[in-house]
């Protein structure tokens, strides 16, 4: 897709916040790829000018590009001196720029920035500070001394109060919105299963709210464009839980680190964190969407360059953010029926490559972005991003490929690579985005990446939800290998039904191997955060030699019977799972229900990721050899909670003081107890009793609830303090 932004005069100084961005480059080793014999070297500088492009008289980036074209491009190297290159529009490279190399000068840390400084802060009431917004800017994000601020937000509003329909929502009075000075500056943020919606309030009438269009229509059901025919995750569906929060209203500004934008006064108001002084602080808001585009070029190399403070304007328009899956959205007021997501829209990205051939991005840094990091699309082939860092992004790190299952040959994504990269804290605003997304790709390699602290899936490959138009596609021969994926499907972000590695579609020859996955949906309230999730028609995929621990649900999940001929073998896991579904699918030689990782598993896990890293060893489980009992049995025996399998459940009758217990056989010193709730999150309001006393847990048990006890005991009992059932998937007792 092509996005254009209005050319605006760049700010002269953003300040020291970019120093942290540029410093990331020092830790990113450049891949030793074959380099052409350069015949010409040009120089660019942040304040370069003219057409000499020499070391002593450098050009601007655009000037260096234009000069390179006069040298016929091939073999030309443009060296960027250190500093911040403020961009009012993208640096556009086309076929005329084929063969050029854009690289940091030796020892330099150049950063392309789409940010604008916010200056002239004055102190206002309540400890807040206010500044005028630069002309033409809608500050959706604000970074103060390089730290992301939060749009002022309120509490959740349950579906019973904020009742969503196809036309709007109730709840204006109960939430206080009816009395807000400018409710039309605020927006509702809604999370339904794997989807995320951001729609601005358009009007208030009594208790009723209406929202910007087409955002609201595209977030609701009935357009025949919102996803598969079976989909029930729109804002007006039975699965809608309510509004996660409303944001961007001065009435909500009450926490340090929050800000609010007033579109009428053209101001931004910020409540500083402890230690921040707005007279000295550097405040930046993203303004320019794309910082570099490479369109129809071949053999372009980008090395050692930073990308920071790029914006993403769509959510500020009537389109809003009508999330579909993995950070793609439904846009436009009309369009064809689209049950397979063929016409969904990717977010804006700091770097976009369209139809590229042999494009390489090495040692880059992508940080403090309002959208995504990088996109490779429109038939980009034999290209890749390696040894780069992605951190603090509103959307996903990388989008590779497209959503057309059978593209014309020139538009097919083939043999692309995303390897040895680090992705941390992506999707912090649009929490349905995956860390790395790939559509209909063939020969894709996603290898030795480190992904951490993500709200939804880590790596997502494939598309189409088994819809008829997507059942036969170009997907094949993809490799997801040796990645380190930790702390994904984070509970605080309330996105469900994903996995550390997620796939869709028939992908003959695809291999998922050597990955270390730890803590996916750990501590969740639902059984739907998986390790490796072979979803929706995923077929012909081999899952082997992976290490998977501390997962909210299954280590491998082949959700549907129409996903066929998948193989899972030789994996090391601390739980078990039912046999994977689908004709011809098999599981063999897996090392399951482990309470210690053997040496071979530790070696595999240690070697995964962009850099060798630590492995969180498992702790022995004293309950495995104990004897379980319960107050009563409703078709599910007590022993199922000590079988080392979090996919099997115990269940008592509903009764006062219902209990489950394990006898360890002798007194042991117990350090920690993990209590995994069952499929229905049944167990709620209970005591964990030992020989020495009890600890009360209010509310529902999680997956797991973790208690540090540090006591000597023979018995561990889970007992309700009221009336109900005890239902448990697992109770682990660690020395």
Give the helices and strands, then pairings.
Blueprint: H1 17-23, E1 40-44, H2 61-70, E2 76-80, E3 83-86, E4 91-93, E5 101-104, E6 110-113, E7 115-117, E8 122-123, E9 129-132, E10 143-144, E11 147-148, E12 150-151, E13 157-158, E14 169-170, E15 187-192, E16 195-205, E17 208-211, H3 215-219, E18 242-247, E19 258-262, E20 267-270, E21 283-286, E22 292-295, E23 301-303, E24 306-308, E25 321-325, E26 328-329, E27 349-354, E28 360-362, E29 365-369, E30 372-377, E31 384-386, E32 389-393, E33 398-400, E34 413-414, E35 417-419, E36 422-424, E37 436-438, E38 441-442, E39 445-447, E40 450-452, E41 459-461, E42 479-481, E43 484-488, E44 498-503, E45 506-513, E46 516-520, E47 529-534, E48 539-544, E49 547-551, E50 556-558, E51 567-569, E52 572-573, E53 586-588, H4 599-607, E54 627-630, E55 655-656, E56 659-677, E57 684-690, E58 693-700, E59 705-720, E60 723-724, E61 728-734
Relevant terms:
mainly beta, about 725 residues, single chain, eleven-stranded parallel beta sheet
Task: Give a verbal description of the structure.
- The protein is mainly beta and 735 residues long.
- The longest helix has 10 residues, at 61-70.
- It is globular.
Low-confidence stretches: 1-38
* Percent in strands: 35-45%
Count every beta strand, where a strand is a DSSP E run of 2 or more residues: 61
User: Can you tell me the overall shape?
Assistant: globular
Terminus-to-terminus distance: 56 Å
**Mean of the pLDDT scores?**
93
Multimer state: single chain
Q: Strands across the major sheet, in which order?
A: 1-2-5-23-28-31-35-39-42-45-48-51-53
How many distinct helices? 4
The helix/strand class is: mainly beta
Q: Outline the biggest β-sheet.
A: 13 strands, parallel
Radius of gyration: 27 Å
Proportion of residues in helical segments: under 10%
